[in-house]
Sequence to fold (96 residues):
Amino acid sequence: MTDKKNLGANEGEGSRSAARDYDKAAEKFVKDGKVAPAAEQARAAVDRDPAGAAADEAAARTGPKEPRPHLDDIVKREESVVDKVKHAVGKLRPRH
Fold:
């Protein structure tokens, strides 16, 4: 959907072409009458597993989890990769 002339162009903060494509797709979704079937499908999923749906909603409300540290950040903190691996293995041992 994106214009070929805009491929690779830096649009700065945010992407106008992506926003435009999203808006067009959302409008088409509504015009094609797909909202009611999608809502019914969602309702059926919640009815099948209400506890799972509630847990998923709660997880979504908490926002993204903290990202894993990059190697550069580990090195800056003067932790070696070996130390991180030892720590990870130590966490795995009790599970298995």
Remarks:
- The radius of gyration is 22 Å.
